[in-house]
Amino acid sequence: MKPTDRFKSGDIAWHVDWGSSPNRKPVLIVRRAMCKDWPRWDRRNKTAEGITFARHMARMSWLTIVDGQTALLFDHYLFKRQYKPRRTK
Q1: Tell me, what CATH number does 21's domain have?
Q2: Contact 63, 72 (CB under 8 A)
Q3: pLDDT (tens digit, 9 = 90+) per residue, 9-57?
């Protein structure tokens, strides 16, 4: 399964911030990111692989709605399930 096949439009995912794994925020998946979502500079400059930076980043990111605002989030910070701490005995 490719990382871009994990979610569909309208799915709810959980976004993790740096260093705060238990505190995940719900986000709404709009669609896969496209090159046109990135700034003009990123659409024109090339990476070491020979493709544009925007195309490289679009392969591993999603266009989402976070707190009512659109945001581009990387795939490895999105999860399908909410974190649930282990029960104490």
Answers
A1: 2.30.30
A2: yes
A3: 999 999 887 665 567 888 999 999 999 999 999 889 888 878 898 998 8
